[in-house]
Write a structure and sequence with these properties.
- The protein is built from 1 helix and 8 strands; from the N terminus they run αββββββββ.
- It has 197 residues and is α+β, with helices and mostly antiparallel strands.
- It has 2 domains: 52 residues; 130 residues, no CATH class.
C-alpha cells in the first residue's frame, strides 16, 4: 500500500462533529500532519546515516591501505608521499611511455613510465620481447626502494596543474640482446607510473 501525502487531511479539516484534540495546545505554533511526517522522515534519514557511519567512527586513515591485486605489494596512499619521503623529492619526467609529456611525478628510476606497468597499475612481473626488436626485458616488482620502514612497493603523488594522482610502483628490470652470446644487463631500478585519480 502506498501512502499518498495529499490524502492526509490538515488538522483543521476534521470530520464534522469530531472533538478537537488538546495535545498540542501548549505550543504557540499550530502543527500540521505533513510537517510531523516530514520530521519523522528527516529523523529516519539522520539515524540511518549515523548507523552507516558507525563502522568508520574513530578510525584513522592508514598510509598502507593501498595494496596490489592479490595483496602481495603494499603502497603508501598519501597523495604527497610524506609517509615515504617526509622531505619530498624532485620529480623527474618519464623516460618512456604515454605519460612522457605529462607533468613529472615519479623519480629515482633508471627507466620510468607506463611501459613498466601491468594492467593492474602496479609494476610488471614478466619477461617480454620489446622495442627495439631483438631485445628481451625481464621485470619484477621490489619493496626495498620506497623509503623508510616498513618498506613499500609504491607511493602516490599529486601533480599540478590538474591535480592528477599517480602511483609510482618500484621494480627491477634486466635487458639482453636476443643472440646466443649476449648476457643480461642490469638489474636497473624501474618505476611503473600509473594514473589512479
Amino acid at each position: 500500500m502506498t501512502l499518498d501525502l495529499n490524502a492526509i487531511p490538515y488538522a483543521d479539516e476534521a470530520p464534522p462533529g469530531a472533538a478537537r484534540t488538546t495535545v498540542l495546545t501548549a505550543l504557540a505554533v499550530p502543527r500540521r500532519r505533513r510537517a510531523f511526517f516530514k520530521a519523522v522522515g528527516y529523523a529516519g534519514l539522520t539515524i540511518g546515516a549515523a548507523v552507516l557511519a558507525l563502522p568508520f567512527a574513530g578510525r584513522a586513515r592508514q598510509a598502507n591501505a593501498e595494496t596490489s591485486p592479490g595483496g602481495a605489494l603494499q603502497g603508501w596512499n598519501a597523495n604527497n608521499c610524506s609517509d615515504a619521503y617526509p622531505g619530498g623529492y624532485s620529480e623527474r619526467r618519464d623516460t618512456h611511455g604515454i605519460y612522457v609529456p605529462e607533468t613529472p611525478a615519479c623519480f629515482g628510476g633508471t627507466y620510468m613510465g607506463w611501459n613498466w606497468c601491468a594492467s593492474s597499475g602496479w609494476h610488471r612481473s614478466d619477461t617480454t620481447g620489446s622495442s627495439p626488436p631483438g631485445w628481451t626485458w625481464q621485470m619484477w616488482p621490489i619493496s626495498s626502494a620506497c623509503g623508510g620502514a616498513p618498506t613499500k612497493n609504491a607511493w602516490r603523488w599529486t601533480t599540478n596543474p590538474g591535480a592528477k594522482v599517480w602511483r609510482c610502483s618500484d621494480g627491477n628490470s634486466k635487458v639482453r640482446r636476443n643472440v646466443w652470446w649476449a648476457s643480461w644487463q642490469g638489474p636497473y631500478l624501474s618505476i611503473c607510473r600509473a594514473r589512479v585519480g
